Structure formats: structure tokens, C-alpha cells
Write a sequence for this structure.
């Protein structure tokens, strides 16, 4: 007769670690509170665990809580469930919960700001999983301390062009378009699209330009005849380092000295080169900008009326002044 002491023990699934149990409980309790009353079978199917594990976890929750003012666990300091429904009908219903409502919640204004940012992200072509973003917007709306303001973020570039760029990014295809450069010259460009970004009302495509063999930034309102080609992209966002700033300085950039109100300096950060000398002049800050051409400078200054003044060179001052004078004359 074999000696049972040397028989190999039956293999079993190792019990979950304490950290895994805690993570599971932290997910289980909010889910139960959100669903009011559910069966053990429904909870087990949702979390992908056995019904016995759900029963054990619910029993543990019912013995959990926070010490009250007496530093002891009184009845009102503990979770409680509908024990009759749990034991007789295999249903879970939390009848008392503690500490959950004490967790910090977003204010209505904070939630609205985050929702606005998510709506903006939905316009970017690399965010293909827009369902996940919509689900997050709904969670933010439900989880705020009050109903967030109803708002909508202004749309991006023309939907047809944006739709083509989004399709090119999703399919990994190169785009071809006509582009009006800063010198007013029309060029044919083929680009591997990487990212769409915006500054104020202007939208830009960042991508690898096959004509220049470098990373370039293109304004949507200067692009025309957009076509998604059959050629696959040779560079994607995972292998091309996209700088934090939208515009990268080049040796051909023009330097312009400006004086600006302190509150708008942050809006000019993309144009201020590293190491630029900054001095206080009265209530203004004097610093240097780098721009590729004066046409862009005119638009930049016009977008911040009364807060930015061009100091030098004279050619830049004249370009901005003439442009503003011409605009004013149209209202005469």
C-alpha cells in the first residue's frame, strides 16, 4: 500500500497576492455602488472571477470601514449590505458605505475644463480610439461635484482636409498637397503625417517632408488639393522626435526685438529662443523672437492687440505698422 505522505499534492491555482486583492476591492466597491443591486453571478462575469471569490470579497467589504471619532469601529463606521438578499437570493446590495464620499471630487469648473481638453483631443488624427475619449467625458460629467457647464470646443480645420489627414494617419499613408510657402511660392509637397496641432485659431500639420528631407510644420489654410496617396509612410511618430515647441529655429530665421506685457509672455514661448536676453522695461518685458518671415510676425502681433510692441528692426516695425494701417483703412 503506497505511503500517502510522499504523494505529490494536487496542483491548485495560487491565491491572489494581498496587493491584487486590494486592487480588486478598490474596483469592486465603486462598481457595486454604481449598480445598486446585482447578482453574484453578474459581478463574477463582469470581473472575470469565480462566484465564490465574489462572495468572499463582499463578506470582507462588509467587515471593513474607518475608525470613527472614538477610534473604534462602531456600526456606523463599517460598510453594511443587505444580508437577507445576499444569503437567500445571492444578490449584493450595499446599504451603508463609509469614506467613499470623502474622496476629493472635481468641481464643475474643473470637470468642464478637462472635458474641453478632451473634446480638443478628439479632433487630432492620432486619437483613433475616440470611443474611449467619449467614455472618459461621460465619467468626468458623472463624477463632478456639480453638473459641468455645457460647452463645445470650436472645430478644427475644414472637416474634409482633417478627415483626409486622419485617414492617412490611420492607414499609414503619405499625403500629397499643394502648399503656399512663406515667400508666396506654390510647391508640391509629399509628407508623412505625424500630428495635428493648433495655436489659437491656426491649425498645423507636423510631418516628415520628403521634399526637404526633414520634419516640417504646415499651416492648414495654406494647403490645397489634399490627396491621400497609396505610398506607405517611411517615418512615424514613434521614430521621429517631435520637439515640444511647434516651431524649431533655423539659420534663416529673422530676429525681432519686442516689448510685451508679462501676462502674454507665455503665449510667445514657442517663438522665444533658448538663452534669449530678457529685461524689464517699465511694466513691460523686452525679449527677442525668432520668426521665419514678417508675414507671420504681423499675424502674431495682431493677435495680441495692445500687449505687444515691435521695437526692432525697423523693417519689422514697418511691416507690422503698414499691415495694421491697411486693415484699419478697410473700416473707413
Amino acid at each position: 500500500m503506497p505511503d500517502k505522505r510522499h504523494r505529490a499534492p494536487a496542483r491548485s491555482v495560487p491565491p491572489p497576492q494581498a496587493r491584487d486583492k486590494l486592487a480588486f476591492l478598490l474596483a469592486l466597491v465603486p462598481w457595486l455602488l454604481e449598480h445598486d443591486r446585482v447578482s453574484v453571478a453578474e459581478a463574477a462575469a463582469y470581473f472575470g472571477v469565480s462566484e465564490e471569490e465574489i462572495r468572499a470579497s463582499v463578506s470582507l467589504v462588509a467587515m471593513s470601514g474607518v475608525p470613527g471619532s472614538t477610534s473604534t469601529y462602531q456600526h456606523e463606521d463599517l460598510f453594511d449590505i443587505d444580508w437577507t438578499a445576499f444569503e437567500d437570493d445571492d444578490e449584493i446590495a450595499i446599504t451603508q458605505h463609509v469614506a467613499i464620499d470623502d474622496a476629493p471630487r472635481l468641481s464643475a469648473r474643473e470637470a468642464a475644463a478637462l472635458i474641453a481638453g478632451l473634446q480638443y483631443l478628439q479632433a487630432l488624427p492620432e486619437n483613433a480610439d475616440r470611443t474611449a475619449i467619449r467614455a472618459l467625458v461621460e465619467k468626468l460629467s458623472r463624477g463632478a461635484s456639480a453638473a459641468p457647464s455645457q460647452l463645445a470646443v470650436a472645430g478644427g480645420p475644414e472637416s474634409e482636409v482633417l478627415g483626409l489627414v486622419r485617414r492617412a494617419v490611420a492607414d499609414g499613408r503619405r499625403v500629397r498637397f499643394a502648399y503656399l510657402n512663406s515667400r508666396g511660392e506654390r510647391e508640391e509637397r509629399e509628407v508623412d503625417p505625424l500630428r495635428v496641432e493648433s495655436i489659437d485659431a491656426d491649425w498645423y500639420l507636423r510631418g516628415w517632408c520628403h521634399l526637404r528631407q526633414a520634419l516640417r510644420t504646415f499651416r492648414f489654410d495654406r494647403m490645397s488639393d489634399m490627396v491621400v496617396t497609396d505610398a506607405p509612410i517611411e517615418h512615424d511618430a514613434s521614430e521621429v522626435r517631435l520637439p515640444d515647441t511647434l516651431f524649431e529655429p533655423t539659420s534663416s530665421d529673422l530676429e525681432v526685438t519686442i516689448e510685451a506685457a508679462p501676462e502674454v509672455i507665455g503665449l510667445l514661448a514657442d517663438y522665444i529662443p533658448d538663452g534669449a536676453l530678457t529685461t524689464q522695461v517699465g511694466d513691460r518685458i523686452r525679449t527677442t523672437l525668432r520668426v521665419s518671415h514678417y508675414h507671420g510676425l504681423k499675424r502674431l502681433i495682431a493677435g495680441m492687440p495692445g500687449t505687444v510692441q515691435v521695437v526692432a528692426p525697423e523693417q519689422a516695425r514697418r511691416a507690422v505698422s503698414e499691415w495694421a494701417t491697411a486693415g484699419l483703412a478697410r473700416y473707413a
